[in-house]
Specification:
homodimer, 333 residues, elongated, six-stranded parallel sheet, DNA-binding, alpha/beta
DNA sequence: TTGAAAGCGCTAACAT
DNA sequence: ATGTTAGCGCTTTCAA
């Protein structure tokens, strides 16, 4: 990327000054005379001028970049959020820098974004109960330097904005509905025990059961993935016979876990919802294609992503936006 | 992002020159004396220095950015590719700029990337038979300016690299296997008729049938999405009775369409594979969770993304890398 | 080995 | 209305 035409070449070709060329080609407040402007535009066109965003960023000290940190972009939860972020970023004429941590450090991602002087960072990755203090201080420094941060899920960073997701309420709402439906036996298929999203959903699960005077049959912890869901059921079946489990509702900590769980049940010859019931959270896309249809709590993930991008870029938005879940009853529970 | 500490502040604090500070803090060939280096690093640390990637890019005239253009990041096909790209980009210490076109112009995305002087652009978006000439010339200019381009799917751009996907061979292989299995009735549920991937898969479908002396019952065109697959089946059932369709194998142009088709069949009270059979392409993640298991041609999407990133960044790689599909027999066909 | 200084390409005061 | 010029933060040649 070295042979590119520069603004001064355009200016020279058009016989005007650098400043004039700049004013014509960018959205400057001052508009040069139409005749001049035309000449400049023509020169730019024939020379094949492409503005250098790096140089503009340096001069304007603002980059038009926004950074998104996700755990795994191939997880439908994150890719839906990314879609929403992308959509909104486009509207605000921002480019999206994407970092997938895949369990690795968010720290590296944040450092890279800070170095690239992104206008904002969206932390969509699942929050852990124990946050790396270095991540925290990196984010704080980023904010001190004028960077904006928005967290998705919980409002866990001082000075940052947030799109919070009512996981606890969702867990409660889901279980209460199932209890009202006559269900009495519940097990929770959770993610790792330091994943706040999973913990909150479980807390809602527990409180709804307690309200109904019920006890959970079991609570498990496995990976927050389809495999984790699958594994949970295998684990479950290795401890308890299918007969003993009959009529139990398995509440998975998210939809992909729920789908993995259903697959495991199917492979074990058990039927959903006849033998066991299963429910999840999120309402990831294309759930319609699954059978049985998954009962879940819907969170509008694309909207969440878009909201995060919106509030982190705007100045007149509330600092926090809360998203409540909505029960979606399908066949699985 | 204006209050950030600069290199000269660090240099001043350490009592050395700008040049020395630069040499210490970056991977310069020349290494200053250990004592000096330590002083600089310490100053950088206490001041909270974060290198400005924009300024570095300007000075070095190379950005360490790589641009990925996809159609829809929430489509598992693209998000799997993105995951592979991201992974490889990380290894090469590059940041990923993501653009989702969602049917809109790839042109805007490419222009933005060109402006940001990305070292390379990966075009993963589905290629159309008719390519916007402006997109073409933008990409050509980008390459002339030293930018590298790699296309995924087909090798359609002069001077660019490519990771080609053997769609035709895949269609052929799939149908031949099914024919050997005793199937004789086939219909193709295609994407839009200008989508090259869909066309190629259909060409393979046709040639395998022709070789077997068979005729397709029907070929349809709908959206290249789950909805399109669903719609295809509704369309099909509105024209032909379920009895007349019995034993037909529906070959969908990709997995998400196949999944949508299966859902539509199920909703129509038809059973897969008992009443009709269905097959797809790609082997998107978590197919295991579906019932019936989808017979498909697997393309290692993550590897494809990683390969694209690898060959576009390296100098000693072949210009084109081809990926063949692998038949995955499951229950649906 | 270290430092001085000339850019990298562009923006935005400030002058004219 | 247009032009001049001093940066933006950093790298790198060239001197010392």
């Amino acid at each position: 990327m070295s042979r590119a035409v520069t603004l001064s070449q355009v200016a020279a070709a058009a016989g005007v000054s650098l400043a004039t060329a700049s004013r014509v080609l960018n959205d400057s407040a001052r508009k040069p005379a139409p005749a001049i402007a035309e000449r400049v535009r023509e020169a730019a066109e024939t020379l094949g001028y492409v503005a250098n965003a790096q140089a503009q960023a340096l001069a304007r000290s603002t980059t038009g970049l926004i950074g998104l940190v996700v755990h795994d972009i191939s997880d439908p939860y994150f890719s839906s959020i990314a879609k929403g972020v992308q959509h909104r970023a486009r509207e605000d004429r921002h480019q999206l820098l994407l970092a997938a941590t895949n369990g690795g450090d968010q720290l590296d991602a944040v450092s890279a974004f800070a170095s690239h002087r992104t206008a904002a960072i969206i932390m969509a990755g699942s929050r852990r109960t124990e946050i790396d203090p270095r991540l925290l201080s990196e984010l704080e420094r980023y904010q001190r330097n004028g960077g904006r941060v928005v967290t998705i899920g919980q409002d866990w960073l001082d000075g940052a904005r947030a799109v919070t997701i009512d996981n606890r309420g969702a867990g409660h709402q889901l279980v209460r509905a199932l209890v009202e439906d006559g269900q009495t036996r519940f097990a929770f298929l959770g993610g790792p025990d330091d994943l706040v999203t999973s913990l909150e959903r479980r807390a809602g699960f527990r409180s709804a059961l307690a309200e109904a005077g019920l006890e959970p049959e079991l609570e498990m912890e496995h990976a927050f993935t389809s495999e984790g869901g699958y594994e949970s059921v295998r684990d479950l079946l290795s401890r308890t016979s299918a007969e003993d489990l009959a009529g139990t509702t398995l509440v998975a900590a998210n939809d992909v876990m729920a789908l993995g769980a259903i697959a495991a049940l199917r492979h074990a010859g058990l039927r959903v919802p006849d033998d066991l019931r299963v429910a999840g959270f999120d309402d990831i896309p294309n759930l319609r294609d699954f059978a049985p249809g998954l009962t879940t709590i819907r969170f509008p993930l694309e909207d969440v992503g878009a909201a995060a991008a919106r509030i982190v870029l705007a100045d007149d938005e509330p600092r926090v936006e809360s998203v409540a879940g909505e029960l979606v009853r399908r066949e699985s529970a």
